[in-house]
């Protein structure tokens, strides 16, 4: 393929596992002499990719965002940067032990609440639920989960106390009863399910819950600007394919029936010459805690475990009380759906780091047992964990942050930038520091785009667009191509977006220095060169999904709640206002009308920020006009107002110093002064060089100007 710079592209590398080689890779890299593996799809530029989707029984959280935003970035880079034709499949698990249990619990709790139990009965039931909960608490060994359960127990006991007191005094029972009912929902739901769960057999109860949460999941993904999959599979729609898949595994000799269920025979599979079990995490084989979590909440009773020939075996099909047909095991669902769509071998299989064992190892074994091959997946990609301010995040620990709540605090772009600033395969800590870094990066890039847009708005004729390049332009252009090459190399090396964003930051810093130098020299920067750089950066951010809509340059500015391109609509009018204001200010300064200058400043500082508009005045240069986020501009204004009194006090103190006295106190630098107070000799008695004397003369003249302004202000009463 041809790379972004127009030459032979180094091969792309991605970090993951190559299970058919029975080894784990720390990273995919490119180039000679590196320790990694080159990404080579099976069929030229076509890439087949299956991604494990969510089990839809609750709200999507930031752990989901970690995986799906990361895979969205990788998918976009493969498709839009490297030019691969990516066929992306994802599943929805809408048949699962967690879903069945949660649906039953929700149904039973709603029935219980609708009956409006008397306060005495509610207290008795809560105490019974607490008793059952205490057993669960004693059996819990995980310290984080134990701590979470203890907090729940404590909260319920506290909520019960007011009702107990109200019962004794026979007042306020209805109000405090409702509070207890809300606090004890999880305990009561679990208790009701243990007592009455087997009686809930209406299938519509189990289909409504996943349908609702799947819809919410898709809305969350759309809000995060995550591309939809090319194909979405639901377990409930693939039951016939799963049944056929299970039957063939049994026919091939790797499955067995037991007490109405069907299990995968891991020992038989592992002993086969052409197969190997536990390719991804061989050290985890036999980890009963992980295996039982993989089997599901409703499938780890002593009776169920005794049905297996080996504790390592996993359920292909589960017998289900109240359902004569049973239901599929978790791992076989993905095997059957992915195998049906992608066949005997796919290029990429993705999922969270915690899915490696037993889920992906069992998927791999089952599918290779079905297809009788040893290369069902060529590359496994696993996204890193997400922690909350350094702590493990988990639904079971009830410390998760939903995507909707996260989007109330930060935009989809800011969340994506936070992910881009970290490796997709490493643990990401979702904290205020992480998000502050993302906000600062967004602000830094946006300021550059706004500055370039302002330069491009300056009217020039056609020939004026092409200006002679000096050394500064040639140096900036060389830096531009160096950074493009570095970005390309980073993307080839494990899609290293963290390095890419740093290279982009360095390129913008270089541009800012160039623009500052031109500004100091009262010269316009080279339009064409800056436009090329800004367009390249826009292109890269669009590839990463950090620019959500079509944008010719930089971050688009939209009207609130509309698709209106606010920038192209209002900027001509703002430009006219800016030019009119500049003309008025010039006349006000010449005619010495301070009231008009104050009104002009009020327009800039007080009125326009309320509309999301920033005017930047620069001595000797046209005013820069920028459209920005209203809330961000108001925060900036407030910060300036807090700093302004300190700045003004310091400026006033400096203005009060007569120029003849400004250097006299610097006896540690100078030993002799002329009649005006200008230094003539250094501390060693040597006469100052002409260059140094010239610099001091400029400082003297600047102070002379400040001091005159101070004296005039005193005369007019501006300073008290």
UniProtKB/TrEMBL annotation:
As recorded in UniProt, its EC number(s) are: 6.1.1.16
Per UniProt, the ranges with Basic and acidic residues bias are 673-690
Alphabetical GO biological process terms: cysteinyl-tRNA aminoacylation
Q: Which GO terms describe its molecular function?
A: ATP binding; cysteine-tRNA ligase activity; metal ion binding
Q: Which cofactor does it need?
A: Zn(2+)
Provide the tRNA synthetases class I catalytic domain boundaries. 41-438
Region entry Disordered, spans = 673-692
This protein is called what? Cysteine--tRNA ligase, cytoplasmic
């Amino acid at each position: 393929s041809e790379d972004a710079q127009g030459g032979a592209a180094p091969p792309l590398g991605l970090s993951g596992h190559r299970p058919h080689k029975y080894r784990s890779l720390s990273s995919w890299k490119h180039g000679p002499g590196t320790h990694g593996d080159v990404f080579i799809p099976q069929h030229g530029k076509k890439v087949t990719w299956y991604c494990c989707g969510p089990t839809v029984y609750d709200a999507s959280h930031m752990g989901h965002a970690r995986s799906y935003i990361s895979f969205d970035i990788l998918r976009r880079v493969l498709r839009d940067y490297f030019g691969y034709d990516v066929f992306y499949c994802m599943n929805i698990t809408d048949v699962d032990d967690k879903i069945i249990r949660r649906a039953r619990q929700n149904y039973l709790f709603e029935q219980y609440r609708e009956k409006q139990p008397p306060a005495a009965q509610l207290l008795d039931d809560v105490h019974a639920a607490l008793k059952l909960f205490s057993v669960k608490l004693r059996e819990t060994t995980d310290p984080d989960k134990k701590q979470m359960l203890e907090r729940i127990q404590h909260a319920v006991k506290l909520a019960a106390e007011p009702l107990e007191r109200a019962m004794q005094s026979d007042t306020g029972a209805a109000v405090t009863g409702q509070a207890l009912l809300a606090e004890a929902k999880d305990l009561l739901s679990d208790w009701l399910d243990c007592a009455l769960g087997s009686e809930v057999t209406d299938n519509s109860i189990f289909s409504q819950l996943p349908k609702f949460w799947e819809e919410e999941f898709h809305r969350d993904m759309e809000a995060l600007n995550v591309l939809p999959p090319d194909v979405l599979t639901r377990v409930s729609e693939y039951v016939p394919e799963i049944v056929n898949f299970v039957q063939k595994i049994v026919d091939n000799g790797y499955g067995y029936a037991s007490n109405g269920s069907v299990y995968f025979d891991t020992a038989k599979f592992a002993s086969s010459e052409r197969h190997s079990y536990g390719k991804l995490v061989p050290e985890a084989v036999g980890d009963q805690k992980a295996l039982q979590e993989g089997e599901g909440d409703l499938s780890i009773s002593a009776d169920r475990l005794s049905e297996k020939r080996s504790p390592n075996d996993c359920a292909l099909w589960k017998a289900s009380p109240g359902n004569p047909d049973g239901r599929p095991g978790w791992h076989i669902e993905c095997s059957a759906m992915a195998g049906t769509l992608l066949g005997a071998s796919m290029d990429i299989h993705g999922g969270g780091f915690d899915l490696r064992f037993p889920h992906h190892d069992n998927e791999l074994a089952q599918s290779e047992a079905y297809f009788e091959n040893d290369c069902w997946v060529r590359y496994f990609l696993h996204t890193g964990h997400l922690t909350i301010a350094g702590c493990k995040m988990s639904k079971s620990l009830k410390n998760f942050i939903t995507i909707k709540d996260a989007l109330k605090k930060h935009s989809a772009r800011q969340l994506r930038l936070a992910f881009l600033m970290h490796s997709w395969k490493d643990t990401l800590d979702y904290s205020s520091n992480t998000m502050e870094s993302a906000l600062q990066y967004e602000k830094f890039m946006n300021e550059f785009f706004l500055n370039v847009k302002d330069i491009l708005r300056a009217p020039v004729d056609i020939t004026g667009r092409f200006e002679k390049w000096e050394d500064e332009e040639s140096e900036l252009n060389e830096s531009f191509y160096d950074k493009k090459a570095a970005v390309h190399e980073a993307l080839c090396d494990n899609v290293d977006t963290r390095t890419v964003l740093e290279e982009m930051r360095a390129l913008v810093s270089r541009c800012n220095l160039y623009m500052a130098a031109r500004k100091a020299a009262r010269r316009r920067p080279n339009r064409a060169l800056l436009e090329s750089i800004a367009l390249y950066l826009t292109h890269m951010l669009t590839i990463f999904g950090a620019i959500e809509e079509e944008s010719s340059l930089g971050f688009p500015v939209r009207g609130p709640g509309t698709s209106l391109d606010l920038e192209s609509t209002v900027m001509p009018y703002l430009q006219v206002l800016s030019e009119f204001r500049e003309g008025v200010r010039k006349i006000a300064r010449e005619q010495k009308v301070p009231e008009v200058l104050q009104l002009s400043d009020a327009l800039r500082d007080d009125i326009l920020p309320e509309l999301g508009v920033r005017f930047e005045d620069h001595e000797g240069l046209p005013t820069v006009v920028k459209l920005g986020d209203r809330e961000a501009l108001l925060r900036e204004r407030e910060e300036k107002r807090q700093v302004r009194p300190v700045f003004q006090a310091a400026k006033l103190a400096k203005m009060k110093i007569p120029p003849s006295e400004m250097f006299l106190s610097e006896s540690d630098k100078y030993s002799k002064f002329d009649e005006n107070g200008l230094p003539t000799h250094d501390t060693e008695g040597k006469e100052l060089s002409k260059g140094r004397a010239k610099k001091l003369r400029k400082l003297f003249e600047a102070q002379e100007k400040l001091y005159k302004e101070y004296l005039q202000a005193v005369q007019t009463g501006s300073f008290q």
